[in-house]
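quick one, 106 residues, struct below
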Amino acid sequence: MEDLTSKIKRYVTLKAQIESLESELEPIRESLLNELKEKNTTRIEQSPFYIENRIIHQERASKKDFPVDVWNTYSKQVTISQLIVSTIKDKSKRRSRSPIKKIQAR
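---
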């Protein structure tokens, strides 16, 4: 089990490093976007690099916007796997939750 613990510790350490680097990266990103805006363009090339700001448009619809048969025919379902790594909290500090009430069908 120690092997799993060391993997989790390594994951948490790397995740913290990534978050630290992302916080350093954000001001640079904003500066580059401002440069594009000042030059009124979406792409600048400066050898050996280029920067480009792509705008992605997405259109979505809600299930309530369509008749049931149309929704059932054309809707698509996407499954995403998410790995969550967190520290285990002390159970005595956990806030109490009210028990789930079961509703009985009549």
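The mean pLDDT is 79.
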